[in-house]
Amino acid sequence: MNLENISHTATSEVTLILCAFALLLLALHGRRRAPGVPVPPGPRPWPIVGNFLQMEEQVHLSLTNLRVQYGDVFQVKMGSLVVVVLSGYTTIKEALVRQGDAFAGRPDLYTFSAVANGTSMTFSEKYGEAWVLHKKICKNALRTFSQTEPKDSNASCLLEERICVEAIDMVETLKAQGEEFGDSGIDPVQLLVTSVANVVCTLCFGKRYSHNDKEFLTIVHINNEVLRLFAAGNLADFFPIFRYLPSPSLRKMVEFINRMNNFMERNIMEHLVNFDTNCIRDITDALIAMCEDRQEDKESAVLSNSQIVHSVIDIFGAGFDTIITGLQWSLLYLIKFPNIQDKIVQEIDNQVGMDRLPQFKDRPNMPYTEAFINEVFRHASYMPFTIPHCTTENITLNGYFIPKDTCVFINQYQVNHDIEIWDDPESFRPERFLTLSGHLNKSLTEKVMIFGMGIRRCLGDNIARLEMFVFLTTLLHRLHIENVPGQELDLSSTFGLTMKPRPYRIKIIPRN
Ligand code: HEM
Which positions in this protein are listed as binding heme (predicted)? Predict the structure, then answer.
């Protein structure tokens, strides 16, 4: 065989291999996609990094800009992971409500399994019969417990009692701090954190802590750190190689999660020791009772005891950072727009008066305050995305084919800033939610996206709205808050699963 023959044989082998590879790709491609249905468009990805380098620090803004070019359904590649991004109220509703089952999964992200250890309803379970039951159990435990008769007051339910106690305690502390610090003002975050965390601690574990309790502060700190590291979007989710390399932030996150789980386990063990079927003290007891009854109830046998009891971790983890961030933003808007604060105070004075404190029952009579809370959710959009979803089957949306097991981001920020819905989305204007007769325009408040939608919708949306209402109105019932002299108020935020405002101080003046 001469040289020419050798080179010819080698060329034809290469050609054959390439042809076979192309056929294999075609076959794989054909298997995943219905004929004639295109995949979503999107920016051209770079090798290895995909579209990662095209994302600004504020990822939601980059993805909102890409929607202008590619429409409501487009795809980007984050490292090796294909992510379909959904925008537009109608498209998101079509996906999460009308085709809800197909979009109800959670992706198999590395951080999700690190956080959840396989037992979490929120992060780790495959969507299916067991998950549906798990969500129902969490919902029932939350509802039963928040609606239980209060212990020591004439509040309408235990939830109202707990929230009112914490709100007034917070206001008294703020008042004392206001007297101490005068014109230089205070940073309200720490106090908001401990007050709101106490509400969820009482509901979950039947205990409240003093604001300086060491164990309590450690847990609150750990929860914040887990959320911060988690939200930073771990590189291991997008570049599998990082799973095998030492990563300080991943190691830190796993360490924090273990400490958090130890705290939860300790509380659950204490509850198991003192458990009494006739005296259900809190959500943990309610969940233990479900485990005890389940022998007779065949349906719940698809879930393990550990999964059921660990639901308390889902509720605890989701139930305070989101509310604290909402309150942080609210106070910032109140000092930035004093005329809006005056209107809320006017409503409090008219509807509640000075002889008693605000309660749940006042909420329907205070449309301006409700409009303010909705405008905070919309304008700050501090949960720019829902928790990532994943498709549970091959599906077509707006004419595009999305294969099973595709990671899906829901861009809530885009909906909240869509000029087609809001006309002037960048203005902060609670009045936009009021009808000419001053009532709340419910068909517009429904378009604010902050709790997700459909099967995966937040379980605590009602509790969150009630809690924010009572904390804000109790505060403004007793105190006037204003900007401290010389402080520039900046409405920009740090990016994350929940986006926080930049630190600021408030000056506190008692109202009477
Ligand atoms: C203003 C406060 C809150 C906001 C903005 C908020 C927002 C959200 C969002 C965006 C999701 C993800 C929805 C999705 O993936 O499509 C979620 C899920 C969830 N939230 Fe909330 N939330 C808040 C308060 C609460 C509270 C107070 C609780 C419980 C007491 C809670 C419990 C949950 C749970 C258990 C899930 C997981 C649902 C699932 O995976 O199916 N949330 N929340």
Answer: 458
Distance CA 8, CA 5 (A): 5
At residue 430, does pLDDT exceed 90? yes
Q: Whose CA is nearest to atom 31 of ligand 1?
A: 460
The closest alpha carbon to 283, from 115, 137, 163, 116, belongs to 137
Q: In the chain, how long is the greatest CA-to-CA distance?
A: 106
Q: Would you say the CB of residue 386 lies under 6 angstroms from ligand 1?
A: yes
For the cut 70, the answer to whether the pLDDT of residue 163 exceeds it is yes
CA dist., res. 511 & res. 501, Å (int): 26
Q: What are the E-state strand segments in 79-223?
A: 81-86
pTM confidence score: 0.89
d(CA 122, CA 260): 16
Which of 322, 469, 498 has most ligand 1 atoms within 8 Å of CB, for mutation? 322
Question: What pLDDT is stored for residue 303 in this prediction?
Answer: 72
Give the residue, by CA position, lying nearest to ligand 1 atom 3. 322
Identity of residue 432 = R
Domain 52-510 in this protein, CATH class: mainly alpha
Which uninterrupted H or E stretch holds 31? helix 3-32
Question: What are the structural domain ranges in the chain?
Answer: 52-510
More confident residue, 36 or 413: 413
Q: Which is the closest atom of ligand 1 to the Cα of 412?
A: 10
Ligand-binding site membership of 458 (annotated)? yes
* 466 C-alpha to ligand 1 centroid (Å): 14
357: DSSP letter: -
